[in-house]
Amino acid sequence: DAAKVCHCNNVTKGPIRACWEAGARDVPAVAAATRATTGCGTCAGAVEGIVGWLCEQEGVSA
Questions:
Q1: Which of 11, 12, 15, 22 could cross-link with 36 by S-S, CB 3.0 to 4.6 Å?
Q2: Domain CATH code at residue 16
Q3: pLDDT of 61 strictly over 80
Q4: pLDDT tens sequence across 6-27
Q5: Which domain holds residue 49?
Q6: What mean pLDDT is predicted for residues 46-54?
């Protein structure tokens, strides 16, 4: 969970997982909670991948 995902806003995988567990089930919700993807946008694909993976693991729709 310490892997840096968003360099612009210094967001690691941990906070993305935490906000997902708190109910953020899509990239816009994760972005609102963590600010990931709101800088240069380079991490958008990685954030989308993490959210998709978490949804698959829990059997929920993104």
A1: 11
A2: 1.10.10.1100
A3: no
A4: 999 999 999 999 999 999 999 9
A5: 4-58
A6: 96
Burial annotation 32-54 (CB, 10 A radius, 16+ → b, else e):
ebbebbeeeeebeebbeebbeeb
pTM for the full predicted model: 0.89
Residue 52 φ/ψ region, left for φ over 0, alpha for ψ in the -120 to 50 degree band, beta for the rest: alpha
Of 51, 52, 42, the C-alpha closest to 7 is: 42
- At residue 59, what is the residue type? G
Question: How many angstroms separate the Cα of 62 from the Cα of each of 7, 23, 49, 52, 56?
Answer: 24, 11, 11, 6, 9
When divided into structural domains, the chain yields a total of 1
Q: Which two tokens stand for residue 56?
A: 């698959």
